[in-house]
Automatic annotation (TrEMBL):
Cellular localization per UniProt: Cytoplasm
GO cellular component terms, semicolon-separated: cytoplasm
Coiled coil: 90-152
Protein name listed in UniProt: Corrinoid adenosyltransferase
Species, as recorded: Roseovarius mucosus
E.C. number(s) listed in UniProt: 2.5.1.17
InterPro entries: CblAdoTrfase-like (IPR016030), CblAdoTrfase-like_sf (IPR036451), PduO-typ (IPR029499)
Lineage: Bacteria, Pseudomonadati, Pseudomonadota, Alphaproteobacteria, Rhodobacterales
Primary location class: cytoplasm
Length: 190
């Protein structure tokens, strides 16, 4: 259980923060940048939920919870020493990736194949889902960069890769199953 009775601690005033294992690192470290960007994705999902209803809102709520799981995973280095931890660290699981894939496939069945790139926009929900997509792509790039420096859970990387695809397909669904997608017209303003 998490108990937060004091929000500021002053322990980060010199530009350092604590990871999940207690190690202190610079706030600009690759690991903090990666999980901080995952937090940004979560905030964009919160904005999208203002426009979502029913099943889409339920799916976005699951994704928000997954993103906290992902942040918990990324803030805890030293995966090889997890077996010695007092409490097993929370790690992303392949089942979370599988769920995203199943949801993408289910949504994609209702969409016509693309014949053009899509501009971010259309309905308010679709526009917000495109924002979620682009921020999740940035989170993925930063997590891949982190994985070149330190160990990162493979399921965490896969989840981020599938997540941006999920947002893309969901944005098309939010645009009247793709009928209201805003299509790119190459060179239209020359």
């Amino acid at each position: 259980m998490v108990v937060l009775n004091k929000i500021y601690t002053r322990t980060g005033d010199a530009g350092e923060t604590a990871l999940g294992n207690g190690t202190r690192v610079a706030k600009h470290s690759a690991r903090v940048t990666a999980y901080g960007t995952v937090d940004e994705v979560n905030a964009t999902v919160g904005l999208a939920r203002l426009y979502a209803k029913d099943e889409t809102d339920d799916a976005l709520a699951r994704i928000q919870n997954d993103l906290f799981d992902l942040g918990a995973d990324l803030c805890r280095p030293d995966m090889e020493r997890d077996k010695d931890a007092e409490y097993p660290p929370l790690r992303m699981a392949s089942s979370q990736v599988d769920r995203l894939e199943a949801e993408i496939d289910a949504m994609n069945k209702h969409l016509e194949p693309l014949r053009s790139f899509i501009l971010p926009g259309g309905s308010p929900l679709a526009a917000h889902l495109h924002l979620c997509r682009t921020v999740s792509r940035r989170a993925e790039r930063l997590t891949v960069e982190l994985s070149a420096l330190e160990n990162v859970n493979e399921s965490a990387l896969k989840y981020l890769n599938r997540l941006s695809d999920w947002f893309f397909v969901a944005s098309r669904m939010a645009n009247d199953s793709g009928k209201a997608d805003v299509l790119w017209v190459p060179g239209a303003n020359r």
